[in-house]
Amino acid sequence: MQKYEAPIKDIKYLINSVFKINNYSNLDKFKKINPETTNLILEEASKFTQNVLLPLNQLGDLEGCKFIEGDVQTPEGFKEAYNDFIEGGWSSLTFDEEFGGQGLPTIIGVIVSEMIVSTNMAFGMYPGLTQGAYKAIEEFGNSEQKKLYLPKFAEGKWTGTMNLTEPQCGTDLGLIKTKAEPITDGSYSITGSKIFISAGEHDLSENIIHLVLARLPDAPPGIKGISLFIVPKFLPNDKGELSERNYVNCVSIENKMGIKASSTCEMKYESATGYLLGEKNKGMRAMFIMMNEARLGVGIQGLGMSEVAYQSAAEYTKDRLQGRSLVSPLNPELPADPIIVHPDVRRMLLSIRSFNEAARSLSIWIALNIDIAEHHPDTEIQKNASDFVALMTPIAKAFLTDSSFENVNLALQCYGGHGYIRDHGMEQFVRDTRITQLYEGTSGIQALDLVGRKLPQDMGRLLRQFFHPVDKFIKENISVEDLSEIIMPLAKSFARLQQASAWVAENGMSNPNEAAGASSDYLKLFGFVALGYMWAMMAKTSHFMLNDEDSDIQFHQDKINLSKFYMNKVLPETSSLLSKITAGSKTLMSIKNSNF
Amino acid sequence: MSAFNKVAIIGSGLMGSGIAAQIANSGTKVLLLDIVSNQSDNRNSISEKAIQTLHKTKPSPLMHKKNAALITPGNIEDHMHLISDCDWVCEVVVEDLSIKHDIYKKIEKFCPKETIVSSNTSTIPLSKLMNGFSNSFKEKFMITHFFNPPRYMPLLEVVPGKETKKNYINKIVEFSDIYLGKEIVFCKDTPGFIANRIGIFWSMVSTQKAYDLDLTIEQADAIVGRPMGVPKTGIFGLMDLTGIDLKDHVIDSMFQSLPKSDSFFQLYKPNHPLNPLTKKMVKEGYIGRKGKGGFYRLVNDKGVKRKQALDLKSGEYREIIKPNFESIKSSKKDLKKLIGFNDKGSIYAWEVLSHVLKYAADLIPVISDDVLSVDQAMKSGYAWKYGPFELIDQLGTDWFSKRLKEFKMDIPEIIKVANGRPFYRFENDKKEFLSFEGDYKPIPFNPESWALEEIKFGQKPVASNKSASIWDIGDGVACLEFHSKMNAVDNDTLLMVKEAAKLDKKGFKALIIGNDSSNFSAGANIGMALFAANLAMWPLLEQTFKEGQSAYSALKYSPIPVVAAPAGMSLGGGCEVCLHADFVNAHSELYMGLVEVGVGIVPGWGGVKEMIFRHFQNEKRAGGPMPALMEVFQTIGLAKVSTSAHEAKDLLFLGKNNAITMNRKRLLADAKKQALLLAKDYTPPSKEDVVFLPGKTARTAFYLAINELRKSGKITDHDVVVAKELANIVSGGETDIINPVNEKHILDLELLGISKLFRESKSLDRMEYMLTNGKPLRN
């Protein structure tokens, strides 16, 4: 059974005790929140996601979206859920107050989206894409565009999309063919086809605002000649009242492996009216802003799926009676013991859980830095934070989703053959999670971004924002006796990561294939060490909190134990990764293309 | 050797005073005469003012301000008799035949029999200059054509007359070569000689074609600059530098003097729209960098300087548009690929190259019998990396000839002679050039003046890696050559340094350290160090610092003598390596300094140590340790860089007995000579040397000075952090004036200081900024 209870206790622990967000009350957005308001938001979000979204998850998967003569019908109950969603104010949490938003920090947004993903990833796609469109217009729109579109997004009345992919171009957007021709009134006529457009057409909102990449007639070739356009489904007047239907249509929806309740559309633009967003030929810049946030968002999807899979599996292994403990029976009075007594079952559960709690911590760390990068008064601190976000985004995207896919499979494994049966809901997690490794740039592309762009940038400047704090942390805590079991393994793995980074930089400089050949392993190694650092921070926090009078001893003891599990049973992976990295890429390239 | 006692320069304009300064730079006395001013009671005011201007000109014509004292001002009415004790009289007056004739008559009257006379004319044929003069005057007369600025442009075109005596020519050549550092190219008595004949044609073609093809000036400069081995100023940037007001003048002189059959007349369009534009610019004072601006100009936008470019069509300035030619990017300095690509850039490249290279080829043997002189003239007079015939070789004579045919252009005779063969080839370990007769002649090797490149032909290095190599340069002497990017010192370089320090084991008796690059070394490669610091790999970094210290120490205490031969930029780790040599034979153009504070660190490879010992051993130093230490602190703390070898002596980067070579091509040969001298009876320096440093009291004094500077706003907070680390090293750390301190003690302090500073984020920011922008960040 799909089972979920929002991890509120863990979230509160992370934001209050580990990252101490009250230290950031000097940032504008953080003035809005205090422990009470945060609590209220978490409670309400958990109620909404558990009570409204979770029950629709399996139903939505079964029913899927329906394409009926150009319209897309979402599964039963989605429209009502969406209305609850906007009434609850969930559509505008982090949007600016000037445009009808609630002006809350990104970390609140990240926390709530994890809950949404856990309970109904497909549903989350619709507001998720709106978030990206909002950001792009907020950053690059002129004041009229902002005034027109942003409040509608905040209200949830209009939703947004991102139109990048075309049949002939996915990763390589330089190949885009969709045309934009200027019209005398200053708008543009957009013609072309786009595929894989999530939320491209649906029945949840009264209007859909497409952000479309297209090429102007005089544009330079390749990636430098792409501009971004706003193409509304219904053309609004200045007041936002809808008038004529624009010449943009959904011509079909994809029949896909998972997230079936999310519509994935093929869009046709036939001289549709569009408006330039930002500067001509600078569309990729705008797209990257959207994409960066979206990539972190996909990482969170990985986390959310891993979390719900863990909870469902943990519940099942406590209930499922089968065989006996190998040491001594737990339930002598019953015919069998629950399977959770078995070390290998526990290995699977703990692998997932030790990932989830550290990945949550990492997500919050990145989100916090997004807030600092945007709002800190000191430009130096701003720059450092934005360096950190740039560095960690590909890691969050690829490592969190790749691990998630392994985790949901482990969770399914806990069910034995029952995991393969649709009713239990586990195979849905496997299918739904799979997309996160593919869209917004595959994991391989993230790894290339890391070694090709982020690592060498300005002689490794971005790296400083991760390596220096970790180095400092290790130095400060390595002699704390009770923590040595945790810090020592971290220190070893950290040294491996340093060594690997230097290897990739040095060898990649003379032969880019060396960097590329090591990229996926390097990203993974980085991910393991990043989570290791999160565990060490949590272990330290809990270690000191154990002595607090009113603290939850069991909670902190579990944290320390989980931290040790991670150091003993997960982090040693870094050793094999380092060997693989420094073995070089020769064997990858030695077999001829034609012999594959 | 033809050292001159005194040289007279007649005419103290830009060129005259520049030549005078360069002669003074050689330590030779100069008499500088000009006309009597009618605006001043002081009859020498014109030449006196010219000398004053030398002090203000940038880049400075003087290698040391005290050199100006060697120049005696005067006027041609009262002081002409003073030329009687001059070895050489050089006329540099306006290009007016009758004025020149008047001057020559005066010279003839006063100058002794053995005094050589020359003219710096660039436009008047020698035959006209000597028209009507006696044979005995003609015997000692020639044209010596310098290039502007005379200190920095190595070319000297020498045009002897039919009657000029060989020994006079030899004397001028030797003096100019050895004492003035000139590269001599003999020319025939034809208009513009070699360099300007081709250079003016090149500039005319490349500007007009840029306009005709509708290129922006940035685009034109991007094509005719770097890709062709021409300085990045290209053509429009170069005209800004030399002065747009000169353009009409030089075109005019070519117009007047060239034979009408010259290709110049086929290509030059007197009515070209560029002509009214440049006329208007000159009229309004937009003559280039010395005026209000030129094709480019700098505008001051609230204290921030911004570069703008002139739109050739509208004549208005606009913001710089960075050129973006696919042809440049994809051809990667391959000239043939650049031309073969099909964009506007490649069309322009061919338009310019086809005409200019053909023009140069057509002029053999009119202006020179051999291709070698033409190439040399363009390289040392216009700072081209490759001469016209080297450029044709890059394309291939066959390819070039076919392509000319395709474009219906005549094939020059010398190209036909080449018949598909290159102009230069390597044969029997020697470089040879193609003569007009069609056979190859070796480029003669001069043991007094050579480039390492010439020795390397056909030789295997004694040892080598990607950053440095060791070569056997004969007579038991080895040369350690740096060849990494900007000759930056990295781990590989240090390995070679260590290797070089024990060359006695391989039978060598002396070592020189030098290379052919215009810059000896830009310093330690901070790129990899910065990367390691960003990764918090502290032990690895400390290892690198220690490696440097031990490599440089090994050099200092090597059983064989070490002579460093730095030229151009010799900074940071590149300066430190010289500080550890037994002897330095420097090129006169030496920009040496310990500039580490600019990137937020302190010298860590023994630089501070060596400077402390030098200042303590300085005979002229004031009493007590403090004045000497203050000098060290200031030299390093202010990152002082010498603007010449002479200044480097003042700063004690060079010892007072160290040698200075004026001609870059003689540098390695001179260094080798010094090394052999030292090897005769060599004992390595003593390792037992100690100094007595005051420790805390000195540190406190430095701290006070630092705090004062901070209070007055002269330095930043981070400057304070860096300066305090330096103060700690210079004062000797935890020591006392009564305790002797050895080298190791100071090296350890350097290590400590640099390690600490590498952990400062702001220092890392400085390094990153330097690496990305090529200039220091003041944070």
Structure description:
The complex is a heterodimer of chains A (596) and B (779). Chain A is an alpha+beta fold. Chain A has helices spanning 8-18, 28-31, 35-63, 78-87, 106-140, 143-155, 283-319, 343-375, 379-414, 426-434, 443-454, 461-477, 484-510, 512-545, 553-570, 573-582, 586-589, and strands at residues 66-68, 71-73, 158-163, 179-182, 188-198, 207-214, 227-232, 234-236, 242-245, 248-253, 264-277. In chain A, the strands form three sheets. In chain A, strands 3, 4, 5, 6, 7, 10 and 11 form a seven-stranded mixed beta sheet that branches. In chain A, a hairpin with a 5-residue loop joins strand 4 (179-182) and strand 5. In chain A, helix 3 packs across helix 5 and helix 5 (106-140) packs across helix 8 (343-375). The longest helix of chain A is centred in the middle third of the chain and has 37 residues, at 283-319. Chain A starts with 7 loop residues before the first helix and ends in a 7-residue tail after the last helix. An eight-stranded mixed beta sheet of chain B has the order 3-2-1-4-5-6-7-8, sandwiched between helices. In chain B, strands 15-16-17-18-19-21-23 form a seven-stranded mixed beta sheet, with helices on both faces. Chain B is globular and about 80 Å long. The model of chain B has no long low-confidence stretch (mean pLDDT 94). Classes of the chains: A alpha+beta (596), B alpha/beta (779).
